[in-house]
Q: What sequence folds into this?
């Protein structure tokens, strides 16, 4: 019994490291001190630190929650959602220098999915589609976004392998206005799982909103090998090979001319697994530094070689980014998104939004409205759709 008592005292004492092991050695003797030292060493081994003496460790992430109001023309509701434009996440990353030229590093990142804004719906079901989640979404909880390693040379570039992004990723999301938290060009982030309601009030059993508004046509994260060349004169290029015969290439530019910041991205991808697909994505963004006026445009095209069917997505977005209060930048913008999907129809989105930065708290407050319209190839008349999302994102 005495041994159990001493063991419990030792474990509690090991957690209170600031008291040290010397004091307990005086009270309980050398055997207990040795036992405590072992437990302290174990606690240090299991705890998250800033890395070993050789490899650093940084914990980062964000929480992004909002209230989503939706109106499909016949029903309406308000859901508490995880804003999937920039989903909640937590990650761990670090690096170590081999010498003055070479370094290595790693990154592990988990996405957090509870009532995702692109997985909630009105509870309707289409045969053969995964709808009828209601306000819970699919509740998959977590997914592995990244599990990657890299080796980097200052003069030769960076080679990354593991589960990570394709080169094609982000080529359509260049945005100096800072609106992607609610104004990304993949306009289905708030309606992807909602069905289209016909004007007579029935559910359209052939087409839902994700068929009409397909997103930004970038590739999903996958197990890939990606090479990124060093940045030269504002330009950086990369190439990726991925599983299932996916390849992508990209070029980005960032610079400033006469008080105007310029950023652009262009990408090309090939998916040669089965139905060969070729994808082109690009975007450009301008920001006038003095006035805060900005303009962003993007375009994406995907062609399916076997069927000849194509998908097109384009967005124009303009607004003002200014410091009007002590919290940080205020961003107001308007947007238009157009889509065309062969064998389904055309889609249009008209949107407005405002974002308030709170620099001292690492926070963004946002409110954004979107109005959606569908023009189906079947000529069936449909109801328009509306969303209003308001929420906040905190980064750490």
A:
């Amino acid at each position: 019994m005495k041994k159990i008592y001493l063991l419990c005292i030792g474990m509690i004492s090991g957690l209170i490291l600031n008291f040290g092991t010397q004091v307990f050695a005086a009270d309980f003797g050398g055997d207990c001190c040795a036992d405590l030292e072992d437990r302290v060493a174990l606690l240090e081994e299991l705890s998250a630190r800033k890395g070993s003496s050789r490899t650093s460790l940084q914990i980062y992430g964000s929480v992004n929650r909002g209230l989503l109001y939706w109106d499909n023309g016949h029903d309406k509701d308000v859901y508490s959602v995880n804003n999937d434009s920039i989903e909640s996440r937590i990650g761990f990353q670090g690096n170590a220098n081999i010498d003055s030229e070479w370094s290595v590093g790693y990154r592990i990142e988990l996405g957090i999915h509870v009532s995702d804004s692109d997985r909630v719906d009105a509870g309707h079901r289409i045969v053969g589609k995964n709808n009828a989640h209601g306000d819970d979404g699919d509740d998959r909880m977590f997914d592995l976004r990244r599990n990657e390693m890299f080796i980097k040379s200052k003069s030769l570039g960076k080679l990354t392998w593991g589960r990570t992004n394709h080169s094609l990723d982000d080529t359509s999301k260049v945005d100096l206005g800072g609106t992607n938290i609610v104004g990304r060009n993949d306009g289905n982030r708030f309606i992807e799982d909602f069905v289209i309601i016909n004007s007579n009030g029935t559910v359209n059993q052939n087409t839902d909103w994700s068929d009409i508004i397909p997103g930004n046509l970038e590739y999903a994260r996958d197990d890939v090998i990606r090479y990124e060349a060093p940045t030269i004169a504002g330009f950086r290029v990369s190439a990726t090979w991925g599983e299932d015969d996916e390849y992508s290439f990209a070029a980005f530019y960032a610079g400033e001319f006469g008080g105007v910041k310029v950023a652009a991205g262009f990408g090309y991808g090939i998916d040669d697994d089965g139905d060969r697909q070729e994808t082109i994505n690009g975007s450009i963004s301008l920001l006038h530094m003095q006035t805060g006026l900005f303009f962003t445009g993007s375009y994406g095209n995907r062609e399916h070689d076997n069927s000849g069917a194509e998908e097109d997505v384009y967005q124009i977005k303009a607004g003002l980014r200014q410091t009007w209060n002590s919290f940080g930048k205020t961003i107001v913008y308007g947007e238009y998104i157009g889509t065309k999907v062969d064998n389904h129809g055309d889609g249009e989105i008209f949107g407005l939004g405002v974002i308030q930065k709170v620099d001292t708290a690492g926070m963004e407050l946002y409110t954004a409205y979107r109005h959606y319209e569908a023009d189906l190839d079947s000529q069936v008349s449909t109801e328009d759709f509306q969303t209003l999302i308001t929420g906040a994102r905190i980064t750490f």
